[in-house]
Amino acid sequence: MISMRLYRLAAVLLAAPLATAFLSAHDAGAQSASTPLTVPEIQQCLCQQPQLQPLQDAWLQKQHDFDEHQAQLATVDQEVASQRQKLDPNDIVGQQVLKDLLSQQQELRDAIGTQYLPAVNQARDAYNAAVTQYNGKCTRPRYGVDEEKARTTLACPAP
Fold first, then answer.
1. Tens digit of each residue's pLDDT (9 = 90 or more) over 99-139
2. Distances from the Cα of 98 to the Cα of 75, 76, 88, angstroms
3. Do 5 and 56 reside in the same domain of the chain?
4. Which stretches of the chain score pLDDT less than 50?
5. The Cα angle at residue 88 between residues 83 and 89, in degrees rounded to 5
6. pTM score
7. In a shared domain, residues 8 and 24
8. How many domains does the chain have?
């Protein structure tokens, strides 16, 4: 019975340094995430921040172009369906109009798939990568005095 108590006490005493080491490492990781940015880090963030807006604008423009062509395709799809419904098999002009609409429909689909969709995806990915990089470096706390100092001595490199 006494040896069992000694065994438990020895186990607790041996585990205590390991737990302390683990908690210290955990606290150090949490502390580095909450350690305020230094003046040079704030300056890097201040220089990086304006670079996000043009990337977002480019992405939104590409998205607008994509949406516009999708709307055009939807309109042509409706015109094709309408033309098919009212087409008389003996109407040569109506058949030519349908062929032209089908050609326009295919051109829009090709342009969307090969030009507009890849462009919007590329612009979105570039913006998201820049935001992820910014957030990874710049979302820690900042001291107001350090930010003021960073702004007064700020000199961003040319893009």
1. 999 999 999 999 999 999 999 999 999 999 999 999 999 99
2. 14, 10, 11
3. no
4. 1-31
5. 115
6. 0.68
7. yes
8. 2
